[in-house]
Specification:
The protein has 476 residues and is of the alpha/beta class. The protein has three domains: 209 residues; 91 residues, Elongation Factor Tu (Ef-tu), domain 3, CATH 2.40.30; 132 residues, Rossmann fold. The protein contains 16 helices and eleven strands. β1 and β2 form a beta hairpin. α2 crosses α3.
């Protein structure tokens, strides 16, 4: 048996709940937005470096001695502070930034800048302490104690540093695995407190700011933009959208083992800027714990009348979804994600789904303007009983000519997107067999992280161009 003949669909003529009026095609994000964002981040680091140079940093370093150590500490402090503010901007949910980069890429950069700024901050504390102690011919620990208790803003900075240390420790992969998502998310919010407390001491005591109105104005501007972005886009915009659309649960439907779909209605949903393939952060006002948000993708094409999400019971807050009652209010943040049809105008398209990852791809099947026979969906599941939305998939096969291939079975022993019984095939070769036009196709991939990485690599090895390979990861 070949991989392409792994399984077949059974056609059905019923209407698809995910069909209907598709969301209007919205403007594609200009490509230069991403370049402009990266350039702005680089320029901010150059500016703070220039502040250090303008205040004699290079001369102090080349002069040696305790002043050189203190100068190096000032530079690492400026870089750490700048990256901390950039880290806040990365996850401030700014629509322009979100559309340019996508949440999964922003999350990776957020982690990188977070750990980098933390170690620069540690270097700053050590170098400044050693440098000041050397100049005063004092013990380094005694000098640190003196700075904390006598320098303006240092008590606040110490409290902020402790908060940031807690966030960094709980963000290490080994620690995250031992925490529930809700617990990790709550602890992670202390990063805002840490940033808010750790930075002001530079304006009050920093050599690069004292007596320099331009430097102070720049720093307060960067600080204000970061704080303002959080207030506007993490608080203000979601509050406005929730007030405007007022989402409530219409009904709840079981879809399969551990899978539940939630249908929601509201006001002016045709004005909600959501596309197939995107996700929201959801809070349901059904009792204690409602304040903890969870990311769920739209599992049906938004049609201006109703939204649908489908949730897998993973044992945390997701287990409560099945018990939601009609009329329960929902709060949203979003939409987020760039795994949309913004750059697709027709032609062959391949969608690779694993498990619950089929949900955003199902929504995309309803929106993408492919022709009969141009779309292939490869759906990976452990067994046939775990296939969700079988009737809807049959509808797409019958009404829109989608070719659907089911891959069942346990995982392969090697890293692969194929099940164990097909592990003898090369990952890229199997993909070419299932979708002969893969190299010319737009490819959408969604599933668990390891599986998605293997599928992305297979698609790239099969000749898919980077601009036509679309994924969205939901790891935290």
């Amino acid at each position: 048996m070949t991989v392409a003949a792994a399984s077949s669909h059974v056609a059905s003529s019923q209407d698809s709940p995910s069909s209907g009026a598709s969301a209007p095609v919205r403007r594609t994000t200009p490509r230069w937005w991403a370049d402009a964002g990266g350039l702005g981040a680089g320029v901010s680091l150059l500016i703070v470096t220039a502040l250090w140079v303008g205040n004699g940093g290079v001369q102090q370093v080349t002069g040696g001695g305790a002043d050189a150590v203190s100068a190096a500490g000032r530079l690492t402090g400026l870089w750490a502070s700048d990256l901390l503010l950039l880290q806040v901007l990365l996850m401030a949910r700014i629509p322009l930034v979100e559309r340019a980069f996508g949440q999964d890429r922003l999350a990776r950069w957020h982690r990188w800048t977070g750990f980098t700024s933390f170690w620069l901050m540690v270097a700053h504390v050590v170098l400044i302490t050693v440098g000041y102690a050397g100049a005063a011919h004092a013990n380094a620990f005694a000098e640190l104690w003196t700075m904390i208790w006598t320098y303006p803003g240092m008590l606040l900075a110490t409290a902020g540093t402790l908060a940031l240390i807690m966030v960094v420790v709980t963000s290490v992969r080994a620690a995250r695995r031992k925490l529930r998502y809700e617990s990790w998310h709550l602890l992670h919010l202390y990063a805002y407190l840490g940033v808010g407390l750790a930075l002001p001491h530079q304006l009050w005591t920093g050599t690069d700011f004292i007596g320099s109105p331009a430097s102070i104005a720049y720093w307060w501007t960067l600080y204000g933009v970061s704080a303002g972005s959080v207030v506007v886009y993490r608080l203000g915009l979601p509050a406005w959208r929730n007030w405007r659309h007022r989402l409530v649960v219409s009904h709840v439907t079981p879809e399969g083992p551990g899978l539940t779909s939630v249908y929601l209605t509201g006001r002016a949903l045709d004005r909600l800027p959501a596309r197939a393939g995107q996700f929201f952060q959801w809070r349901f006002l059904d009792g204690p714990g409602w304040s903890r948000a969870h990311p769920y993708s739209l599992s049906a094409t938004p049609n201006g009348q109703m939204l649908r999400i489908t949730v897998k019971d993973l044992g945390d807050g997701s287990s409560r979804v099945a018990s939601l009652r009609p009329g329960t209010k929902a709060l949203i943040e979003g939409p987020y994600g760039t795994m949309t049809g913004a750059t697709y105008a027709g032609g062959p398209v391949v969608l690779l789904a694993c498990g619950i990852g089929v949900t955003p791809l199902l929504a995309l099947l309803g929106e993408l303007p492919y022709g009969p026979g141009e779309a292939t969906l490869v759906y990976r599941a452990r067994n046939e009983a775990e296939v969700a939305f079988r009737a809807e998939l049959d509808w797409f096969a019958t009404r829109r000519g989608v070719r659907i291939i089911y891959l069942f079975g346990p995982r392969a022993e090697r890293p692969s997107w194929l099940p164990a019984k097909f592990a003898g095939y090369g990952d890229a070769a199997a993909l070419r067999q299932m979708a002969p036009l893969i190299a010319d196709s737009h490819v959408y991939v969604c599933g668990p992280d390891a599986w998605t990485d293997a599928a992305r690599k297979a698609a790239a090895d099969a000749g898919v161009k980077p601009g036509q390979l679309h994924t969205e990861l939901f790891s935290w």
